[in-house]
Write a structure and sequence with these properties.
It is a single chain. The protein starts with 5 loop residues before the first strand and ends with a helix. A hairpin with a 2-residue loop joins strand 4 and strand 5. It has a 4-stranded antiparallel beta sheet. Strands 13-22-19-20 form a 4-stranded antiparallel beta sheet. The chain has a 4-stranded mixed beta sheet with strand order 14-18-15-21, with no helix packed on it. By secondary structure, it is of the alpha+beta class. It has 11 helices and 23 strands. Helix 3 crosses helix 11 and helix 6 packs antiparallel against helix 11.
Length: 389
C-alpha cells in the first residue's frame, strides 16, 4: 500500500450503493422525467439521445429507490459492464434501470477519484461478473470491492493529473475521428458524382435486374458447433464480410438460401435503424454459408455497382426505411419500387474501379482509427494502473 493511503471496502466509503428498477414501469410518450439504462452511461458522460420517459407518478415511485443527485457516480453492472460517469446536477429528473448502479461517495472520497478507480477495475469487474444469459455484477460484490485511497488533497491532485492525461489522449482519438469523417464525406461526394446519370444511362426497376430473397429461419435448438455458418448483421463490418463471430446451425437449408460469390448481403431488419441497409459483397469462401431471417441476398449482373448504389443517398431516399417509416426494416416490396439509373456495363467497370480505390483509402483510415482507439484505451489503463496499483 502507498504511504498515507487507507484501505477499505467500497461499501465502507459510500453512503449508499444501489441499483435501478428491477421492474421498470411503462413509459409515456414524452415528459420531463427520464429513466436511463446502461446504454445511456458512457465513460465520462451521459448519452441522452435515447431515453424512456416516465409519468410524474412513476418517477416519484422509482426515485425513492435511487434519489440521484449531483456527485453520484454511475456504473454499468449488467450486459456491458464497467462504464462509469458522474452526475453534474443538470440532468433533471432521472432514475435508472437495474443495469446501472448508483454510488454515493462519503465526504472522504472525491467523486472523480472514485470514477477513475472504477475505470481501473474494469477487467476485474468483467472477470467476476456472474450469470448465464447476461453477465452482471451484484451490489454485494460491488460493496466488497477493495479500495485504497489517499487523503482528499492528494485525491484532488490525482484527479487533476488524470483529467489532463485523459484529455490529451481523447484529443488524439478526436483528431483521428475527424480525419475519418472527412474521408467518408469525400467518398460520399465522389459516390454522388460517380452515380450522377449521364447520356446513355438507363433507368430500371431493381426488381427487373436482380433477384432477392429473405434468409433462413432457425430455432435456438438448431445452433451447433459444426453446422452451416449463418450470416448475420454482425458479419457485415465496414462493407466487408467479417467471420470473426459466427453462428452455425444444423437446420435444413434450401439450395437458394446458400450464398454465392458476388452476392450482396444486406441487413434488412434490425433494432438499430443505423444497421438497416448495410451491405457487403460475398467473397470466395472455403465452405457453404447461408444467411439469417433478418438478412437479404441481392443477386444481379450489376452487383459490383449496386453494392455502391446501396450506400448512396438516392437509395436511402427511395427506400425511406428506419425512422422515416417508424420501422427498422427493408422489405422485398420496398426494393421492388426502387429505380436505378445504370450506365453501360463497360462504363460500370470503370466507375466501380474508381470507387474501389477510394473506398480502400477510407477502409485504411477506418483501420487506423480503430488501432488508435485501442492504443488510447490501453494507454488510459496503463496510467490508471500506475495510479491505483
Amino acid at each position: 500500500m502507498k504511504k498515507g493511503w487507507e484501505y477499505k471496502k467500497l461499501g465502507e466509503v459510500c453512503e449508499r450503493i444501489t441499483d435501478g428498477s428491477h421492474n421498470p414501469p411503462q413509459g409515456v410518450e414524452k415528459s420531463h422525467n427520464y429513466m436511463l439504462s446502461s446504454q445511456n452511461v458512457q465513460n465520462g458522460y451521459l448519452d441522452m439521445s435515447s431515453v424512456r420517459y416516465l409519468s410524474d407518478e412513476s418517477f416519484k415511485k422509482e426515485n425513492q429507490r435511487t434519489q440521484a443527485k449531483k456527485g453520484d457516480v454511475l456504473l454499468t453492472i449488467v450486459g456491458t459492464i464497467g462504464r462509469t460517469c458522474i452526475l453534474d446536477g443538470t440532468e433533471g429528473n432521472i432514475t435508472f434501470q437495474r443495469s446501472v448502479a448508483i454510488l454515493k461517495p462519503s465526504k472522504e472520497i472525491n467523486s472523480r477519484f472514485l470514477m477513475y478507480f472504477l475505470l481501473s477495475q474494469n477487467s476485474k469487474l468483467n472477470s467476476t461478473a456472474q450469470g448465464a444469459a447476461q453477465k452482471g455484477i451484484y451490489l454485494k460484490q460491488l460493496g466488497n470491492l477493495e479500495l485504497h485511497y489517499p487523503p482528499l488533497s492528494e485525491q484532488k491532485e490525482i484527479v487533476e493529473y488524470l483529467d489532463s492525461s485523459f484529455a490529451k489522449i481523447d484529443k488524439l482519438k478526436e483528431n483521428a475521428a475527424k480525419n475519418l469523417e472527412e474521408a467518408k464525406a469525400l467518398f460520399q461526394s465522389a459516390l454522388k458524382d460517380a452515380l450522377e446519370p449521364k447520356e446513355g444511362w438507363e433507368e430500371k426497376y431493381l426488381k427487373d435486374i436482380s433477384e432477392y430473397s429473405i434468409g433462413l429461419t432457425y430455432k435456438p435448438t438448431n445452433v451447433c458447433e459444426d453446422g452451416t455458418i449463418v450470416l448475420r448483421s454482425s458479419n457485415i463490418q465496414g462493407g466487408k464480410l467479417d467471420l470473426s463471430d459466427i453462428v452455425r446451425v444444423n437446420a435444413p437449408i434450401k439450395d437458394k438460401l446458400y450464398v454465392q460469390y458476388g452476392d450482396i448481403l444486406m441487413c434488412s431488419r434490425n433494432g438499430s435503424a443505423k444497421l438497416v441497409g448495410k451491405v457487403c459483397l460475398i467473397p470466395k469462401t472455403k465452405e457453404p454459408m447461408t444467411y439469417g431471417t433478418f438478412m437479404m441476398i441481392i443477386r444481379s449482373q450489376y452487383n459490383p455497382l449496386l453494392y455502391y448504389y446501396f450506400d448512396s443517398n438516392d437509395f436511402r431516399k427511395q427506400i425511406k426505411h428506419g425512422e422515416a417509416n417508424m420501422i427498422n426494416q427493408i422489405t422485398r416490396y420496398m426494393l421492388d419500387d426502387v429505380k436505378v439509373k445504370l450506365p453501360p456495363l463497360s462504363e460500370q467497370q470503370s466507375i466501380v474501379s474508381h470507387l474501389d480505390s477510394l473506398n480502400e483509402k477510407v477502409n485504411t483510415l477506418q483501420q487506423n482509427y480503430s488501432r488508435i482507439c485501442d492504443e488510447c484505451d490501453a494507454l488510459k489503463q496503463a496510467i490508471l494502473r500506475q495510479v491505483f496499483e
